[in-house]
Amino acid sequence: MARSLYDWLWQHEFWLPPGITWQDMQESEDVHYPQPRDLLLSIPFALILVAIRCAFERAIALPLSSKLGVKDKQRPKAQPIPVLETFYSTRCKNPEEASPFFCFPFELISLAKRCDLPVRKVERWFRCRRNTDRPSLSKKFCEACWRFTFYMVSFFTGLAVLYDKPWLWDHRECWTGYPQQPLQPSLFWYYMLELSFYWSLVFTLPFDVKRKDFKEQIVHHAATIFLISFSYCANYIRIGTLVLVIHDASDCFLEPTKIFNYMKWKKTCDSLFMIFSAVFLISRLVIFPYTVLYNTYYYSMEIFQPFFGYYFVNALLIILQLLHVFWSCLIIHMVYKFILQGTMEKDMRSDTEESDEDEEREKMKKKEKNGITYFSNVTSNDYMQRNGSEPLNNRTHLTNGHVKER
To answer: Where in the cell does this protein reside (predicted)?
Structure first.
């Protein structure tokens, strides 16, 4: 069974253009081609990168954060309440999201009754508990320092590897002699460096700072790993190196923007953000479609006929481009706010700390959207009566959902 699956997976029709078989890709003493087994090296290399990252953050980034004045905010701990802690750990971190209808907090009221507490106090307990679990500023700083260091190394490594390669300047050279393009040692190690890094990001995903685009990040990492792996096996290395360099270019400006934001260097942060925005939008929405998508979709067809690998690689590249468009919309929105307000808005992807003011603003938005008002400081009509208030069912309701006092 396993042998049959192996033979089916490695059919040359999947990986190579029509008329080319694996026999045509046999290595010799002077000529080396990519071998799928080489990809296994990326796993131990990824673990080595994780170890290097831990040492870097502990020995360099963390002391640097203290010297640069990055201070963690002291967060009050939530009062131990077993019922709420059990709900938080086993069901949901935000009971409002667990309600069947977001317009009315059934779960909050139920928990408040069980604990004999006002709903408002239960809301504050969950907000305090969520803030306790959020990563500290120093942790964010250390993570940004590590990624900035790697992206700088990988970007300039890519430039050093590619500056004398003909396909960097003439994109049709990506397909000259394909797929029988010998693998150069510099390209092999550059590929292993990038693939190992993305594997290391997957390994540390549960421990890294989680942002609002967490699912998109998972899709991005998966698509990138599949793209690097498949392009290596099918010897799409020339086009793959262009993809890697283009991606690293904007990331070199993103991470220092975060670093200066954590340091509270507002003007430097704003300036770097504008530079990052320009580089990202140009590289991902202009250079990437022309240099990569147009190249793989049209230029490759001048050399060979379509086959499975052609469609698969283009599908992965389109997934990446859709993610580029998604992130570009977020960036354009932030730039628009920056131009209007003169200050950079908080990163909409960030998992920021909650406050009473943030909560009230969010509730007002929901009220305006749904036309529904609920009373979060009560648990039931009985509770209201005990506190001298009139029950809800004795009040007149207007057509817009608001309550009119008698």
So the answer is: Endoplasmic reticulum membrane
List, for residues 100-152, the tens digit of each pLDDT value.
554 456 777 777 777 777 878 878 877 877 777 677 888 899 999 999 999 99
Write the secondary structure of the chain as one string of H (helix), E (strand) and C (coil). CHHHHHHHHCCHHHHCCCCCCHHHHCCCCCCCCCCHHHHHHHHHHHHHHHHHHHHHHHHHHHHHHHHCCCCCCCCCCCCCCHHHHHHHHHCCCCHHHHCCCCCCCHHHHHHHHHHCCCHHHHHHHHHHHHHHHCCCHHHHHHHHHHHHHHHHHHHHHHHHHHCCCHHHHCHHHHHCCCCCCCCCHHHHHHHHHHHHHHHHHHHCCCCCCCCCCHHHHHHHHHHHHHHHHHHHHCCCHHHHHHHHHHHHHHHHHHHHHHHHHHCCCHHHHHHHHHHHHHHHHHHHHHHHHHHHHHHHHCHHHHCCCCCHHHHHHHHHHHHHHHHHHHHHHHHHHHHHHHHHHCCCCCCCCCCCCCCHHHHHHHHHHHHHHHCCCCCCCCCCHHHHHHCCCCCHHHCEECCCCCEECC
The residue extents of the domains of the chain are 31-66+138-341, 74-135+355-389
Tens digits of residue pLDDT in 218-237: 888 888 898 899 889 888 99
